[in-house]
């Protein structure tokens, strides 16, 4: 079963954009291996991430992400089953978070 999970959080006080960029670079091959796609938006210290893929993989990853002390205040915004993925790859955008809600693949 495929799911899409969306959460928002706040970057840790001792971290900045370069930490987020490093996470995205490291996550790319790991997500690809697990069949996970999506996007991470970073804007004004706020993070919003959409994760799509096999339920088991997405939920296991989300548990690790929730525990990661490079951000805090993780709030799950949406969890739904999907028939097809909306994002065909994995990446990062610096657009305001509201824009991400309107996005299709093409970031
Ligand atoms: C905001 C944020 C987003 C993250 N997104 C991902 C991701 O999409 N994929 C991933 O593998 N790790 C992601 N991580 C890193 C995970 O929290 C974790 O460090 C990583 O999965 C490696 O875990 P492991 O060393 O136990 O394998 C993210 C971390 C943060 C703070």
3D structure, described in words:
The chain is α+β, with helices and mostly antiparallel strands and 107 residues long. It has one domain: Alpha-Beta Plaits (2-Layer Sandwich), CATH 3.30.70. It is 34% helix and 39% strand. It contains 3 helices and 5 strands; from the N terminus they run βαββαββα. Strands 4-1-3-2-5 form a 5-stranded mixed beta sheet. Strand 2 and strand 3 form a beta hairpin. The radius of gyration is 13 Å and the shape is globular. The mean pLDDT is 90. The structure holds flavin mononucleotide. Flavin mononucleotide (FMN) binds next to helix 1, strand 3 and helix 2.
Summarize the structure.
This protein is of the alpha+beta class and 107 residues long.
Count the helices. How many?
Answer: 3
The total strand number stands at 5
Supply the CATH class.
Alpha Beta
Strand arrangement, largest sheet?
Answer: 4-1-3-2-5
Low-confidence stretches: none
List the bound ligands: flavin mononucleotide
The whole-angstrom Rg is: 13 Å
Give the overall silhouette: globular
Note the run of SSEs as H and E: EHEEHEEH
**Mean pLDDT, as a whole number?**
90
Distance between the termini: 25 Å
CATH topology call: Alpha-Beta Plaits
What portion of the residues fall into strands of 2 or more residues?
35-45%
Describe the sheet with the most strands: 5 strands, mixed
Percent range for helical residues? Answer: 25-40%
* CATH architecture identity: 2-Layer Sandwich
Report the structural category: alpha+beta
**Number of self-contained structural domains:** 1
């Amino acid at each position: 079963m495929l799911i899409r999970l969306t959460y928002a959080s706040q970057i840790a006080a001792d971290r900045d954009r370069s930490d987020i960029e490093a996470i995205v670079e490291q996550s790319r091959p790991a997500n690809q291996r697990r069949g996970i796609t999506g996007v991470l938006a970073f804007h004004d210290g706020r993070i919003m991430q959409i994760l799509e893929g096999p339920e088991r993989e997405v939920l296991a990853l989300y548990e690790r992400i929730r525990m990661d002390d490079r951000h805090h205040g993780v709030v799950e915004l949406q969890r739904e089953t999907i028939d097809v993925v909306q994002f065909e790859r994995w990446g990062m955008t610096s657009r305001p978070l509201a824009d991400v809600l309107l996005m299709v693949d093409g970031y």
